[in-house]
Predict the 3D structure of the following.
Amino acid sequence: MSELKLTVAKNVGVTIDTLNTRIEEVLSENKAAWVKAGKSDDDCQVLAIRVAGRQLKAEAQRLSRSGAE
């Protein structure tokens, strides 16, 4: 799982700590619904990593388009 986190962090351009923080936020918001839908804890973790990566990448793209550095 840590290799996946490292890969996502590298692809998105953030630190592992930033990614971990966002993963925890995503899990706190969505884990109950995912478990209710039949997802295992490992599935929830992978989903949270993917969602967090997409969110961070989208934020970076919005900042880039706005001209902020």
